[in-house]
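WARN no homologs supplied; continuing
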Amino acid sequence: MSSGAVVSPELGGSVPDVSRIAAVATALPPYRYTQAEITEMLAPMITPDPAKQAVMRRLHAGSKVDTRHLVMPLESYRNAVTFTESNDRFIEAATSLAADALRDALAAAGIGADQVDHVLFTSVTGISAPSIDALLVPLLGLRSDVKRVPMFGLGCVGGAAGLGRLHDYLLGHPDDVAVLVSVELCSLTVQRDDDSMANLVASGLFGDGAAAVVAVGARRAVELGVNGPDIVDARSHLYPDSGHILGFNPGSTGFRIILTGGIADVVDTHFERDVAEFLDANGVELESVAEFFAHPGGPRVLEAFARALHVDDSALAASWRSMAAVGNLSSSSILHVLADSLDAGTRRPGDDGLLFALGPGLSAELVLLRWPEPQAALGSAAAEQGEAPGSPVDGGSDGDVRHPASSSEAVAA
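OK structure emitted
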């Protein structure tokens, strides 16, 4: 539970013990296909059995996914490649998409790359040493002393968990700027000649994409006039005896998916209680939550979330729309949902939002968001009063930054 405040006499008293989101940006690769196009190409590649191809087509049609973006042209997936070759493609494409997302997020926030103090990177669909975040430093002009934390293995929970860990860092560094970068190229993990139920389902659900979040500490938020939302608190859960439900088995051909129907069962068993305890610890009632940001893990998972929250599917409409438009982007998905929602919605000061995701482990991350009272940047407020600010500051953007040509989008929060 978050409590207390950061004492800041130079800013006129105490500052709430929160971190604040300044901008969220998304990036998608340029190759976009309908679900039917992808299914017809993958079916003979995955299995020669007509009966199993028919099962695969039914599963894909029932996934509620309409279109997906892929990192390569569709026909390129026909060619068998080694894990080394697919991972080389991951490093090149992931670096490019990550750079697009972070560049746009920083521009929307009005913050220079050289002002970033902490970078957190998450992915589960490829590996790199040096990690992708290290490759971004010279590419974007980040400082050579920037703190970096690459995370691997969190999978679909990585975006929500990344927000939680940004919050943890910024509570202890209220003057800092921290960024979260997520890239997932799920299409590179699809296994040829694997007609397991897990691969038949996953091949119809997952897509490729990236996202970035710029967040600031409490004092930096006041200095820049960043208007939220605040990250109030975050909580992690790791469920016992559930490691077999979701994950990857690395092998000579890459990452072989582990995916069972048990995810919805875990949600049915644990999620309602976990949410109630988390909200209660922060003095919030479930009925007062204005907005839900759910990881679009699949139709059964979203339906289970709705049951646990005692809401109908319309309360998770943003997640259903994201899944239809781009599929499940693993750790990037929840950040796409957040970006789309920030772009579309209008909030009142004091509105609470609950963001959540599940991932391998089986694990969950809950993040409580709250919209603050609007504020001007410290320098702008001083200028309006005829006072000279202590130092010039670059205020955040007030609107959306669109980049339709590059399939990327940034939203200043």
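The chain has a mean pLDDT of 88.
OK
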